[in-house]
Amino acid sequence: MSFGYSLSDVVKGVEIAIRIKQIWFEKANRPHALYREFGEDVSHLAGRLAKLDGAYQEGCDLSLRGLLPFNPRDKSIDRDRRALVGNFVATLEDCETLLKENSAMARQNMAVLKAPYWHIAVMPKVTALRDRIKFHMIKMDFIMQSLRDDRLQEISERVELGNALSADLWARQIHGTPAEQLVTPPIPPPLYSKFAIALETNKPSSWSGHSDRKAELLFDSLHRWFLSSTVTYHGPSFGIQTIQQYLNLIKAQFLLEQIQQEHGLPHRYYLAHAVRVLEVKIRQEFRRKDIEKYPIEALDKLGPEQFQIWDATEHLSPSKRPGYDDVGVPLDEILLVHLVPDSGNNPQDLAVMRQVNQDTEFRLIRRRLATPTSIAENDRDPVNIHHYRFIPWFALPTNANPSTKVEIRNSASSASLFYTFSDATGESQPWRPGDLEKFQHALLGYRVVCNKTSFRWQFHKTKAGENRKPSQNRIQLWLPHRLSPRRRENDGDSITTLPTQSSRSLSMSTVATTVQSCSGLQLEKSQRSNTTGSIILETVSGDQGGVNINPIPSPVLFIFTLLNDRYTFLHFELQPQHHLSYQCECPTKPHTCKTVAIQFRPDGPEGKQSEFSYRTFSVDTEKVAEWDLALFAQPQHPKFTKLKMQKTRYLELGFASSDDRIDFAKQFLKLINKYAKELEEIENLKNARQWASDRPDQVKALEKAAQRPASVSSMAIRGLSKRLSRTQSTAPRLGPITLQSAISLPFPKESSP
Asked: Is 569 in contact with 558 (CB distance < 8 Å)?
């Protein structure tokens, strides 16, 4: 199939679009609203095609008069147009076929009968076609930018861009370099090396040595990352600029340099022009005064997934690939929960979509399901958790009745989204997270493993803070955890991004395991959990492999309370040195104790007690809209480090029953011990990597042994391991971290965790 267009394609596309508009929409007998919206999209595409036809004719006239150095009819130029715009004729033909098959929707008397079928069977096809139409219109802008006649629109931006392009062209012709005011600083070497590795990781299957195809793929990636950069932030009305947006701008600069190195680019007029337009836009973006430029140190600490360039899901089957939004950004559905209807009796679902490789970008899709008396509706709301507030109405200390309401509020405006969840967890044992906690988990990046109400708390000094009114307090334990994409119907496995495949026959994890055994860094079986997969990301470029060990966030103890007549959050980052202490007045029946204290002892349970830090955030009771739980989300919120920090010697918690206290203690110890094991495992892996880097010849011998037949390979590795184990290891050894025991807990043996 031919992808793209010629002059005949444009004429044919205009004819089909006009025919669709006249037959299926202008003559429709009061059709449904969504049906009309579909028609408006087709009408807009028809208008855009008419402008494209005019631009095409204008280009031909300029070429005949010698005013344009390229002939639009040239085959190489036509190939550029096809690659950029796509096959819009096929899209329009699919639209016409769909409308013919569902012609009854254009008649009012068939609306009620056809509505359920339309929304269940047809609506996904309509949505896909509308997305394709918008895709074509966005890409047409690049073709028409130098030829369109509507220059008066957005005149200030266009004049500025035109001046910059002229200055850049003049400077290149005279000096051979960009204009001085458009020169950007070089990409720092640490970031450049990470981008270079990402460029070779998960390359598209269509990537080949043919420079034309490589240039097209690079341009698509350049366009996508530039739209996800700081260009989406223009002043306070769009919220807070994130460090990821600034990194995406540098990523766009890197891709721009890569595409400019393609030898065939100067001979492709439209593609070269589109690249030059983006080049000037990128340079102008760096010169803006209202963007925040993050230091290199902060950018270098970001994980490898933040530097990713290619879509890692291309190799997946179509049913397992993520969805896409209006501008082609890939999305994963990570959660689907039920809502209490906001109006009427329409059943409602809420789908949470997360942008691939962007942990702060979400699409919240409220789905109002169709009923015999109403039609289905979808609300799609983009949310950046660093730009929007998460207002926990369910935890409001002054609420007399239980609530499951959450408000998602734009931090720079009064626009809000309210969700009331139908599944309330209550205080049942064992406690399980409900839809409300799952939604909190999806957006904030922490799994709620314990949720208690009706308790009291106090610090070591009364003046430091306390609240002894159980009805005004809620406590939660958070485990850092990123939700994976949901399983789809008829899919046996969940939709996950497969790990990067190494070109080496022996993976780094195998080497690390063997190295640990040889160097005395033997891990207990219980410690070899799948947590390592979330800690280590392997990236391979050519024959060189690297293992990046990323720091893991701490588990959190979180309290919602009323302190000094203000709504308050108390945030405690838990460490292995946090211990539970029981000093209550029930020595004869210790299992009936309802009170527990949290202390910090760096030298172990019997060591000296020290102060520990916590963060707090408070607002006046009349300013609920500023009580933002998103400040504590993962990835870290830009304002998190600016929150007020205080210290205390202990935190005392008094629960409503001994069962609540026992359950809290179990979950607390699980979090602490799991985190301690992960820290020990990270340290052991660091030592193993250091050991391997000091013995490259021995590691190569392991790799060579792995390339032999299975029986010979296992014998060779065992023999090499014995020889290596005789040598004295110079790798430092990590002493065991003392895990907290449940022996001293004041509850019956059968209740012990």
From this structure: yes
Look at residue 433 and give its three-state secondary structure. Answer: coil
Of 288, 277, 182, 281, which Cα lies nearest the Cα of 235?
Answer: 288
> How many CA within 13 A on the CB side of residue 693?
11
Q: What is the mean pLDDT of residues 21-44?
A: 59
Give the strands of the sheet with 416-420, arranged side by side: 388-391, 405-410, 416-420
| Per-residue tokens: 442 | 């999806």
User: CB–CB of 382/412 below 8 Å?
Assistant: no
Q: Rounded to whole angstroms, how far apart are CA atoms 539 and 325?
A: 28
211-227 and 269-287 helices, crossing angle to 10°:
30
Does position 374 have pLDDT exceeding 60, yes or no? no
What integer pLDDT is reported at residue 485 of this predicted model?
85
Angle between helices 75-85 and 123-144 in degrees, nearest 10: 140
pLDDT at 625 over 70: yes
How far is 246 from 251, CA to CA, in rounded Å?
9
Mean pLDDT of 150-167: 50
- Of 679, 310, 687, nearest to 531 (Cα)? 679
Beta bridge partners of 248: none
User: What is the Cα 27 distance to its own chain's centre?
Assistant: 44
Distance CA 219, CA 273 (A): 12
Question: H or E stretch including 704?
Answer: helix 696-706
Which residues fall within 8 angstroms of residue 497, CB to CB, at 6 or more apart?
A: 312, 313, 356
Res. 719: pLDDT tops 80: no
What CA–CA distance (Å, rounded) separates 733 from 748?
Answer: 38
pLDDT value of residue 515: 46
Q: Could you tell me how many residues make up the chain?
A: 753
Q: What is the dihedral sign for C-alpha 406, 408, 411, 415? A: negative
Cα-based torsion angle of the residue sequence 442, 443, 447, 449 in order, rounded to the nearest 10 degrees:
-110
Residues 6+ apart with CB under 8 A from 490: 319
What percent of the chain shows pLDDT beyond 90?
A: 19
Contact 466, 408 (CB under 8 A): no
Is residue 277's pLDDT more than 60? Answer: yes
Query: Using one digit for the tens of pLDDT, what is the confidence trace for 54-98?
Result: 666 665 555 544 444 445 555 445 555 555 555 666 777 777 776
Q: Give yes or no for a contact between 205 and 194, defined as CB atoms under 8 angstroms apart.
A: no
Q: Please state, in angstroms and rounded to a whole number, the distance separating the CA atoms of residues 299 and 273.
A: 31
Q: Does residue 528 contact residue 512 with C-beta atoms inside 8 Å? A: no
Q: Tokens 């780094």, residue?
A: 508
Q: Which residue has the tokens 């861009």?
A: 161
- Selection from 152, 155, 153, 147 nearest residue 54 by Cα: 147
| Strand pairing class (377-384; 388-391) | unpaired
Put residue 51 in one of left, alpha, beta given phi > 0 → left and psi -120 to 50 → alpha: alpha
- Give the C-alpha separation, 686 to 683, whole Å: 5
pTM over 0.70: no
For residues 71 and 269, what is the distance between their CA atoms, to the nearest angstrom? 9
Provide the residue ranges of all domains of the chain, joining segments of one domain with +: 7-144, 184-307, 385-489+499-689, 695-727
SS3 state at 551? coil
CA torsion through residues 298, 300, 304, 307, sign? positive
Structure-token pair, residue 97: 């076929």
Task: Provide φ and ψ at 86, rounded to 5°.
Answer: 90, 175
| DSSP letter for each residue of 371-390 | BTTB--EEEEEEEETTTEEE
**Euclidean distance between CA atoms 749 and 753, whole angstroms:** 9
Stretch 705-709: mean pLDDT: 59
Radius of gyration over every alpha carbon of the chain, rounded to an integer in angstroms: 30
Q: Each residue of 201-236: pLDDT tens digit? A: 888 777 765 556 788 888 888 888 888 787 665 444
Cα–Cα dist 92/510, whole Å = 53
443 close to 638: Cβ distance less than 8 angstroms: no
